[in-house]
Amino acid sequence: MLVRLRTPEAVARAxxxxxxxxxxxxxxxxxxxxxxxxxxxxxxxxxxxxxTELREEIDWRRVIFYFSDERCVGPDDPASNYRMAKxxxxxxxxxxxxxxxxxxxxxxxxxxxxxxxAEIRAVIADRQPAFDLTLLGMGDxxxxxxxxxxxxxxxxxxxxxxxxxxxxxxxxRLTMTPVALAASRQILFLVTGKDKxxxxxxxxxxGDDLPAARVAxxxxxxxxxxxxxxxxxPE
Length: 235
Ligand code: 6PG
Prior knowledge:
Bound molecules: 6-phosphogluconic acid
Low-confidence stretches: none
Radius of gyration: 16 Å
Distance between the termini: 15 Å
Number of strands: 9
Strand content: 15-25%
């Protein structure tokens, strides 16, 4: 499903509102909200809204944060997806305890992937669907999480998390595979900027082979897009 908005700010507000709604429902029905965070730059504005204007709208004590992917760097590295979420969301909220389930980018990649795979398998074994909401971005060639076009991890049917080498910097990544991404009640893609327009047109024009298109077919999903990203879509 495609939700067209005008600006990146509108996408951030719509995403934050969707997270608030999903959190309220999950906490009301199941006592906790399991949220998978996206990396990259786009989600930062959404995280900042949640930590400021909307901070009273969610009982943060009942939220568990997971990551869709991570770069194989330390948590303080500027490239770290965890660091971005920490700056924009975790620190402003002064989160305590084990509510943030970080991918250990600083460890040997295969060991870190195995550790997180074990954690995600346990979450899936505990409850299906395991996650209440999964946030994802999309690269300008159609990748999502760290699942790039042609990646063998797209064909994974057992492991929930894999160590992959990608054609981007830094190349070593940890990523949820389709096995984990399929275990979510809803997937929300946040896509802004004209650089994403070509890939988005492919996703909605039948480009079923793009990772973002394949992941979107794993379950209920919505694309929140701004006008520049939607500029190559049919009116
Ligand atoms: C990452 C992300 C990746 C990201 C897209 C879009 O670790 O980089 O998981 O999938 O969502 O590359 O990135 P931007 O939001 O920075 O455009």
